């Protein structure tokens, strides 16, 4: 079918003015934050209800038209890129609160709700939604669930998966399923909800989610510490975790700090320059907690694990210290980064980082490396920046070869080639470094059950 025929057919199903074919829409809604693939969708549809989505999926099955679900398009694995004449289903207008239950401390929202809007809604109810990351102002709940997003609070609150009580989905067959219905306990066989969490839209489309909320943290306090080595970072983590509960523990390199402070005109946390910085956050509910934090800080200084430090005295200072970490991705995006999102068990982070760092520096000495990540849960972000004189395609081709070796190192450490960004198109060729052949075969079989015609986000994560 031609784009115009698709427009007429879909609008007959979901209403007028809900499909766009113009070049601006095709460009905007055909891509995510990756820069590797050129968007080339056939049409863009804007459903408002689960019934709209179901009608589009059933139509796509009849016509054998590939579909790409599109949320906030903040993904970094090309999971929402439409590069092969697909029909894109944009969830932007499915952004309402469906139901809130104060007793259950749960809220059901449409999948297009912005993460920050959910966080604000929870705050208005005197509650808290803890899954948080730099793209919270534009990422959508459905996309977060489809990629099992992590972020900066995982050490305390876990991944998106831990906050999903129920899902309403439209499968690749066009069937509507209501999964788990908000229950905390439900031991009645396979929990299909968890198949859709992290499936990147390859099994179907999430249209509603019931989300668990919790109490708001009290008096969050942030420390940034200058640390001479990654092994010292681990000693700092161990020391604080043995003495108190942390809500976050992040790290970034001096290179990352230099770029962020220059680009955003932010102040350094202190004058001392160190190779690495640890950012930790905790609830200073009383003086005893604060005294404990200062005692551990002093012990780390005496042991040589920390060379300097800064602690927030109010919410404004806490936000400013967080900005040093959270603004890194946006800062380096102007320099065309090639991103790797890796994880190993926490205890092996220092030796793993050193081995990867050494390999990249020795193999491509002209490539600039920026490290940061969620060190408290073993998640490292390796960012290789494109040299200004190098062509983009040449750069990405070289980085693709770098990734092959980096992922082999990751495999040797029994780690993951995608800790939280998903697989999409970017990591698909490397899935075997983390998943066995048997696991991949089962994943393909599961997709075949939910999406027998192969129309749901084809080519992402798996090749059938």
Automatic annotation (TrEMBL):
Keyword Zinc belongs to the record: yes
Superkingdom classification of source: Bacteria
Molecular function, one GO term: FAD binding
Boundaries of every FAD-binding PCMH-type domain copy: 37-216
InterPro entries reported for this sequence: FAD-bd_oxidored_4_C (IPR004113), FAD-bd_PCMH (IPR016166), FAD-bd_PCMH-like_sf (IPR036318), FAD-bd_PCMH_sub1 (IPR016167), FAD-bd_PCMH_sub2 (IPR016169), FAD-linked_Oxase-like_C (IPR016164), FAD-oxidored/transferase_4 (IPR051264), Oxid_FAD_bind_N (IPR006094)
Cofactor field: FAD
Pfam families: FAD-oxidase_C, FAD_binding_4
Catalytic activity: (R)-2-hydroxyglutarate + A = 2-oxoglutarate + AH2
GO biological process: one example: respiratory electron transport chain
PROSITE patterns: FAD_PCMH
Keywords of the record: FAD, Flavoprotein, Metal-binding, Oxidoreductase, Zinc
Family: Belongs to the FAD-binding oxidoreductase/transferase type 4 family.
Known partners and oligomeric status: Homodimer.
Protein name in UniProt: D-2-hydroxyglutarate dehydrogenase
Originating species: Marinospirillum alkaliphilum DSM 21637
């Amino acid at each position: 079918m031609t784009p115009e025929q698709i427009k007429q057919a879909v609008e007959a199903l979901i209403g007028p003015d809900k499909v766009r074919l113009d070049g601006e829409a095709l460009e905007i809604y055909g891509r995510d934050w990756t820069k590797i693939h050129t968007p080339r969708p056939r049409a863009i549809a804007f459903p408002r209800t689960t019934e709209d989505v179901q009608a589009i999926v059933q139509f796509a099955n009849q016509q054998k038209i590939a579909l790409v679900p599109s949320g906030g398009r903040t993904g970094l694995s090309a999971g929402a890129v439409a590069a092969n004449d697909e029909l894109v289903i944009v969830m932007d207008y499915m952004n309402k609160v469906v139901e809130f239950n104060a007793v259950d401390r749960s809220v059901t929202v449409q999948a297009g709700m912005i993460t920050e809007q959910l966080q604000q809604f929870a705050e208005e109810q005197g509650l808290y939604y803890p899954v948080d990351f730099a793209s919270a102002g534009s990422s959508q709940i459905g996309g977060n669930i489809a990629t099992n997003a992590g972020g900066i609070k995982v050490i305390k609150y876990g991944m998106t998966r831990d906050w999903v009580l129920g899902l309403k989905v439209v499968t690749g067959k066009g069937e509507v399923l209501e999964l788990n219905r908000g229950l905390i306990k439900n031991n009645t066989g396979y929990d299909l909800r968890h198949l859709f969490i992290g499936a990147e839209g390859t099994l179907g489309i999430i249209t509603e989610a019931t989300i668990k909320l919790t109490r708001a943290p009290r008096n969050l306090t942030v420390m940034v510490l200058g640390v001479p080595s990654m092994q010292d970072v681990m000693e700092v983590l161990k020391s604080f975790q043995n003495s108190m509960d942390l809500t976050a523990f992040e790290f970034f390199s001096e290179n990352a700090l230099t770029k962020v402070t220059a680009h955003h005109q932010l102040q350094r946390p202190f004058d001392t320059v160190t190779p690495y910085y640890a950012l930790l956050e905790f609830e200073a509910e009383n003086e005893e907690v604060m005294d404990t934090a200062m005692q551990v800080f002093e012990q780390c200084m005496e042991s040589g694990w920390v060379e300097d430090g800064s602690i927030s005295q109010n919410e404004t200072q806490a936000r400013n210290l967080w900005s040093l970490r959270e603004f890194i991705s946006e800062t380096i995006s102007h320099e065309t980064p090639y991103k790797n999102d890796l994880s190993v068990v926490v205890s092996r982070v220092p030796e793993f980082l050193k081995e990867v760092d050494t390999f990249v520096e020795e193999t491509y000495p002209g490539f600039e490396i920026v490290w940061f990540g969620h060190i408290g849960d073993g998640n490292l972000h390796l960012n290789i920046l494109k040299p200004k004189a190098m062509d983009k395609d040449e750069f990405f081709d070289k980085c693709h070869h770098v990734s092959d070796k980096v992922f082999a190192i990751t495999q040797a450490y029994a780690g993951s080639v995608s800790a939280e960004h998903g697989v999409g198109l970017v990591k698909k060729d490397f899935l075997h470094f983390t998943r066995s052949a048997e696991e991949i075969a089962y994943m393909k079989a599961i997709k075949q059950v939910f999406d027998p015609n192969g129309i749901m986000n084809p080519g992402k994560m798996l090749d059938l």
